[in-house]
Amino acid sequence: xxxxSADASRPTKGRVVMLVDNKVDGDSRxxxxxxxxxxxxWDVVLLGLVRSGRGRTWKLGDAEVRLLPLKTPLSKRHAxxxxxxxxRPFAYPPGPMAAYRRQWIKAWRADLATRRAALRVAPxxxxxxxxxxxxxxxxxxxxxxxxFLQKWVEFRxxxxxQAQQAGRALRGxxxxxxxxxxxxxxxxxxxxxxxxxxxxxxxxxxxxxxALKPDLIHANDFRMLGVGARAxxxxxxxxxxxxxxxxxxxxxxxxxxxxxxxxxIPGNTAHESEYAPYADxxxxxxxxxxxxxxxxxxxxxxxxxxxxxxxxxxxxxPAIEDVEPEPDLRELCGIGQDVPLVVYSGSxxxxxxxxxxxxxxxxxxxxxxxxxxxxxxxxxxxxLLERAQELGVGDRLHAVPYVQHWQVVRFLSAxxxxxxxxxxxxxxxxxxxxxFFEYSHARLPLVxxxxxxxxxxxxxxxxxxxxRAEDVDDLVRTVKAVLADPEKYKAAYxxxxxxxxxxxxAQAEVLDALYTRLVPGTPKERS
Length: 527
Known about the structure:
Layout: E1 15-19, H1 28-39, E2 43-50, E3 56-60, E4 63-69, H2 78-81, H3 97-121, H4 123-126, H5 129-169, H6 173-186, H7 191-194, H8 198-212, E5 216-220, H9 221-237, E6 243-248, H10 264-275, E7 281-284, H11 287-297, E8 304-305, H12 329-333, E9 341-345, H13 354-360, E10 368-373, H14 379-390, E11 397-401, H15 408-412, E12 417-420, H16 426-429, H17 434-441, E13 446-449, H18 452-461, E14 464-467, H19 472-484, H20 486-490, H21 504-518
Parallel strand pairs: 1-2, 1-5, 2-4, 5-6, 6-7, 7-8, 9-10, 9-12, 10-11, 12-13, 13-14
Antiparallel strand pairs: 3-4
């Protein structure tokens, strides 16, 4: 169970290689898991990715982070690589042909126009009288022929564009039939045809994992499950003992697809189903999700729950510790302490209810809202800001960037209300999400939608009000109720022990115990 450590003199419990399919920044769960595992004595290397540019390396506490450059040539769909005789039979093949033909016909038409003009204004330059007669005849025929060919080329170019769009969208009957056929033929292995881009992740991470010779692989979410499982199989075939932990953040069949097409859910769920049996242990974010995973994949034991809880808030003295102070939320919004402020913190998207918050703002006199999001310049956020301007409340909606995960709680505590107006999607019903815990530790009164688990907890603790999802008027009602008597809801946080288990420190102990069960033994010097 030997592993090489960045600090060869430091005894470690074993080498853990964590895998995540993002750039690590902004993924607080993964950052905290890596940092806390390293603090507990594990030699941790966290592998993430960059989608453009070169990779880079840095430290999270004692954990090492490596970002690998991801190339995705296998993401090209069939219609982007081949003709589509069934979808658009007259389309040009993928590639430069359509653009070439359109430019060629324009050039021919320009040449014909010039030659006709030359016959009129410079006949001697054209040639002999006999040649000019032949030229005039050629131009008489070429004119209508070129017009017809231009229309034909434009038609085929449109067919090409439509074929490409339909091929990328993958929502038509041909795409559904393709999916059904491969599911029937290959079953759980169908992802190789439906989502071959998953191999791009394997080819990015595989050799790096093998070189690190881990004792335990911690694969975050569905894409990394296959990468981790294949690395585990290779290691065991080479005679090394390696354990695989699968950290399932969501119930995949219930997610809103990043790519709304006929292949995405069937392909990725097939991939997950193929590799779930390779996991030595499963970690997830809630008991409800654990139940779903155990039933779906026939797991031998109940998944271990590690909540998306924040770091325990601690007072740090910048004069003593090298700690970057968190920004001031109200200062970023340009408002004073007496201005009512409702905050949303987390990933944006229509299903998150941010649009409902914007529509509610005109009915909340004097109230400001802050969206704390990964990229305030993103098109979706800019669209919400434009909508606020249309409603005449643009000066009361603010978009600000994420802060470091250890700064989140104090940063959010400057607000008056924490809002989670998410819509009814299967994954929204079954877990207490990260921002729920972050708002709680910031001691914010909550306004949450009536998704099952979160609304039940909010009613049970009394820490906020519940509104009907996608009901703007009810959202307005609940925000007004909370702002009218915030101390009533803040009092819930005084209940002894309520916040103690909602800390990452408590969750880190659970994760460390799981690792230790899978990789037992006393710490050893690493060479």
